[in-house]
Structure formats: C-alpha cells, structure tokens
Known about the structure:
Layout: E1 6-7, E2 35-42, E3 48-57, E4 59-67, E5 80-81, E6 89-96, E7 102-108, E8 116-122, E9 135-138, E10 144-151, E11 157-163, E12 171-177, E13 190-193, E14 199-206, E15 212-218, E16 226-232, E17 245-248, E18 254-263, E19 266-273, E20 279-286, E21 289-290, E22 296-297, E23 305-312, E24 318-324, E25 333-339, E26 351-352, E27 360-367, E28 373-381, E29 384-392, E30 404-407, E31 413-420, E32 425-432, E33 439-446, E34 449-450, E35 457-460, E36 467-476, E37 479-486, E38 492-499, E39 502-503, E40 509-510, E41 527-531, E42 534-541, E43 548-554, E44 567-568, E45 578-579
Antiparallel strand pairs: 1-45, 2-3, 3-4, 4-5, 6-7, 7-8, 8-9, 10-11, 11-12, 12-13, 14-15, 15-16, 16-17, 18-19, 19-20, 20-21, 20-22, 23-24, 24-25, 25-26, 27-28, 28-29, 29-30, 31-32, 32-33, 33-34, 33-35, 36-37, 37-38, 38-39, 38-40, 41-42, 42-43, 43-44
Amino acid sequence: MIIRLVLIGSVCSTLFTQDLGLPTGAALRQGVHIEWFRTVCPGDNGSAIFVWSDTRFGMRNVFAHKVNQNGNFLWGETGAVITDLPGRQEDPVAIEDGSGGAFIAWVDYRYDEEGDIFIQHVDNEGYPLMDPAGVALAQEPGRQITINMCTDSLGGVFVTWQDKRGGVDDDIYGTHVSASNEVILPGTGTPIVETGGGQAAKSIEYAGNNEAFICWSDARQGENIDIYGQRLNVNMYTTFEENGTPIANTSELETRPRTTYVNGNTSLVTWKTGDDDARIMYQLIDENGPVLPEPRSVSDHEAIQTGPRVKRSDAGDVFIEWTDLRHDPVDGDLYLQKIDANGDQQWGDGIQVDPADGANFSGRFSADADGGVNVFWERGVYPNIDILFQNFNDIGTPTLDEPIFISDAQGYQFAPNAISNGSNGVYGIFADQGSGSIDLRVQFLDGVSPSLDDGGTLALKGMDGDVRYNHAFRSDDRQLLLMWEDNRSTKKIYGNWLVDDVLGHANGVQVSFSDNSSAETDLSQPRMVNTGSGIYLATFDATGSPKRIRINRLDNDLVNLWDSAGVAISPEFDQRSAVL
C-alpha cells in the first residue's frame, strides 16, 4: 500500500464552519458526568436505595437506583429520574419513607444561582408522589445549600440546610415533611438557629418520640468555635433555649460534630476538640440536655485524633470512627470505638481498621446484627486506590484474617458507602474511575462473602471528558459523517453517521486505538478526510521518540480496514502539521 502524506508548516482544519443543516438539539455525544455524594438509604425487603446527579440530559439532574441482594436494579436499567428540569439540580440527600420509597432533597439552581432547596418523594417503584418539578422548601433570596435529613419514624422527614438569607453569616433553617407530603412553611422553612457568627457543619438524626436532634459548629463567640444543639418535634417546635443549648463550649476549638440516636430519648454527639493536639470527644444528650457529667474521649491514647463519624446499631450501641496519628504521624490511620448505651467505651483505646502499611482513609461503616460492624475504606495513593472490606465482631476482633478487596482494579476506585440489608448482609456502593470516566458500582456481602460480580456490579456507566477537533463531511443531502477527538477515557477518535436526522450510534463509535498525543503547542492535532476510496484519519503517537503519525483507513461502517493501531509513518524527527 502507498500512503501519501503532505507535511507543511501551517495548521489547517475543518471544524463545522459551514451550515450543515443539523437538526436543532441533535446530541452528537452526550456526556454523563456522575457526581457521587454517597447518598444511600434502606429500601424494603433488604434492598438499598442510592442517589446521585449526572448530566445525561445536558444539565445536571438527580437520579436514583434501588438494588436488591441479587444485584437486580429495581428502578430500571439507568435508575429513576428524580429531576429532569432546567438549570442544575445537585448534591442530593435521601431518607427512607419506611414503605420502600424515599424522600430526596437537593440543591436547585434553576431560579437562583446561589441555590434553593427542593424535595421529591418517590414511592416503592421510584415514581414521584409530589409535584414532578419538586416542592420548594427554601426559595428565598441568598444562598441555601448543604442539606441534612433524618426520619421522624412516622414515614416523614426532617430537612435542614445552611441558609444565608440574612446576607452575612450562615444560619440553619429547616422544615418537616409528613408521610402524606405536607410541608411546614413550604418555600421558606423555619429558623433553627439565627444568631451572630456562622453556624455550620450540622448533623441531624432521629432522637426518639418522633423528634429529631440537631447539632452544629457555632461561631457566635467569634473564632472560638463551639458545639450547640437543639431538639425538634414534627411541628418544628424546639425543646431547648432559643438558638440552641451549648454541648461543648470550652476555650478550645470544638468542630466537626456528628450525632446519632442511642435509645429512648437519648442521642450521642461526637466532635473534635483542639487543633494541634486534637481529640475526639463524645457526650450523651436527652430532652433535658447533656447526660454525662463531662464529655469523654473515644481513646485515652495521646495521639492526635481527627475526623469523627458515627453510626448506631439496632441495640443502641454506637460506633465512632476517626483518623488516628499514633502509628502514622502524617496521614494517620482509621480507628473504631464502640460505645454502649451508658456511654462507656467497649474497645479499649480503639481498634485499627487496616494494620497494613500504606495510606488508608475515607472509611464508611454499618452495624451488623450481632453487635459488630462492617467497614469499607480506601487504600492506596492516587491514582491507584482500591476499596477494601472488613467485619469486626462484637468485641472488636476482625472476622477475616485479611481484609477483602471489594475492588482492586487498575486505577481509581473511591468514595465507598455502606448500607445494611437489615440483617447480616451489607451493600458497598462506590465510584470507579478506572475507565477514565466515573462509573457507579455495587457489591453485596452476605455475611463477609461478596455475592455479586468481582469488582462490583456496574450500576451506571459514566462518560466524562471533553470533545475537540470536530470534523464534518457531507456525502449527500441526507448523510453527514461526523468525527471528533473524545476524552471520555483517554484521547481517541470517534465517529458517527447522521442519516435522515438520525444518528447511527449513541454517543459515537471509537475508530482509533493507538496513542493520540494531540496538542496545539506542537501542531499535532488529529486530521480526518472522507474520500471516494475510504475514510482516513491521522493521529500522533508519542509513546516513543520521535513522535510519529499513524494513519487509519475506515469503511463506511466506521470499521478499520487496516491495523486498528494504524499504519505508522517512520520519522527521523517529531512529526507535526499533518494534512490528508
């Protein structure tokens, strides 16, 4: 075969400069960028619901899946559509309704670029029970963001958010939505704390008697941040003094509060106190205020402790996770403590989640039915990070000799979350960027045994990256050949036919398979041409030196007629400025 290539010193391109008569709104390639904020809640019959936002419709919208223990997705192949609205809808939070459905709230930017708060209630089948456009909980001037929610145990939910309608500092507002979708003060919400300084980093959980307990970091005293709390009933009436009661207000910084339910009317709050010598503390709170005479530390070890998280078991035991610097003074390690209903430590100075060398972080956990806890976490250094799993029994002993790799695929797996099936099974849901785009995957463990596909069952395929160097070639009035460089994983050339206003391939088909090191700085942009003898494309391969051009020839079905890696032009120097 003879390939004639002209190399010149100027750049020439054909980039949709003429009127091609494309139908309005034709999506040549619609990216699906997934934002995974680890939003999960129980479904029914041992299922799990998880929620995310993606860009499959162009702008960002909210979607949800329900998955069962067999890995079946019960709300359709690509999930239930929670929003299909103008503007951006993102950062969703979900709470179960007790009937197999969920309340899903999100930050909505369709009316205000600073953000409003909207909510939807979906039933057991994923169908909306409220206005299809959602119901506004806060649609006021100023910024409303950062949602926290909890159940009322009656099938309804408490919803809270950061609110800057006052114009200076963040306050905290909220509302209650009943099981029958009745909202207290829709569109405005009611203030929970509205005082000087900023109130942030809130956490809310069910607190018994169909009430909720909320705690937050509070800067009403200036830079000496404290922890305050409040108790709410379903009418949004408060139990403690106006603007909350102090939980921790020493001369130290108190930040990062987290709360969970214990039993009766008692909650547990944990937080970080101090800075250079930070400790993780906790306190029990009931309807009368703090229960323990003094806050307690999760561990008597002298090492720095940061980043608390908290979950309860059905028996009322509480698990606290934190990052501990006793063995690794730079990055720290994940540790766990178990606290009983009386507020007493059960696991000594805490147990180390991952004793292996190397970074371990981003742990999420869920209590099992036997007094133990299931833990998922990340191990590794970016971009090679894996997801691991371990179970600790009721006395804090690892059940497995070595942790299980939920995913040890090449590349970046991240942001795991754990949700129990209501007995001794647990779902691990995580993001996987090994392909170059963010996908969502699910694994189910029956006890400590993974039961779905190795590496997790694919829940949703993402498509990230941008598109460059678009070329279009008209063959007749009804056919248009479209080609472009696509960065959905690594730089490759994709193509598509538009025939009678119908695209031949959803999101195009990959036609180049070798390295494509395109760059405008050294004039190595890809080139395409459609001739009577075939479709030709030239890409630049920089896997060796010098950089060389590879030529592919395609038929009208966009199938490679030559080696899929292309035929290389042997150079003496770096090649550039190709014209076909």
